[in-house]
Amino acid sequence: MHPLLKQYKSYLSIEQNLSDNSIDAYVRDVNRYLDYLKRIGISHPAEARPKHVHRLIQLLSEMGLHSSSLARNISSVSGFYRYLIGENFVEHDPTQNVDRPKTSRKLPSVLTYDEIKKIVNVPDTRDNLGLRNRAMLETLYAAGLRISELLNLNVMDIYFDEQIMRVYGKGRKERLTPISENALQWIDTYLDRSRPYLDRRGKGGGFLFLNVRGTPMSRMGFWKIMHKCLQEVDIKKEIHPHTFRHSFATHLLENGADLRAVQEMLGHADISTTQIYTHLDRSYLQQEYRTFHPRG
Predict the structure, then answer these.
(1) For an engineered disulfide with 194, which of 39, 71, 128, 208 has Cβ 3.0 to 4.6 Å away?
(2) Active-site residue identified among 9, 195, 245, 251
(3) Rg (the chain; Cα; Å)
(4) Domain ranges of the chain
(5) 246 labelled catalytic
(6) Is-catalytic flag, 52?
């Protein structure tokens, strides 16, 4: 590995606190770029010019890479140069004026509020596991969590009196986000009735949601629970755990929530990531117009 890339990898891990998957993706893209420079006779990133970056993107495009992958490659190399400039290894960023390929964003599937209610009402809350499942689904929707955020919740992360919860998002970035009184009631009932039973062997380690063996719930475990719930309802949509997060954001915006407030709740670093939900809102309005306007 190039010495500068080694240093950059350490920077991403220690100072940026990125996940292993994100670091691997950045390093892979930058390593491809450095290999390309080496093949054309450039030994140091400072010697590269915009034409070299353009040529690499052209080659990757000819190889069949999708526009989203091309854009990610440019972003990865650009991030590498920002680091190099900050450390005074180079003076110029050859990616600065390179146009990013336009990427079309597929609008995610969104559930209506009635569909959400149908799904969360499926678990039999008279049963310990059913009560846990109801609490998980209610929490997922009420706070717009990523599945990893839900499963990493600790018992001590729930502040009942303040009606907020502490969440660790991507890169272990901490945020405080509101949670509904309804979801808190389900969590409280779960903590009172179900969790002591699930944690009877003391293997829970403080995690909020536990599996039948008393250990922290896994992604696959949650997906199986959700899939079983979906089999009980007649909803003809592509639904996965992230659908609850999309629905949370869309419902807030449809009801007039401020975009920046939703950005904070979702833990998006860039508001442009949240703005996809404004497109969803617009689609919803168009659908309502076509359905109810006499000339629609």
Answers:
(1) 128
(2) 245
(3) 23
(4) 3-86, 113-291
(5) no
(6) no
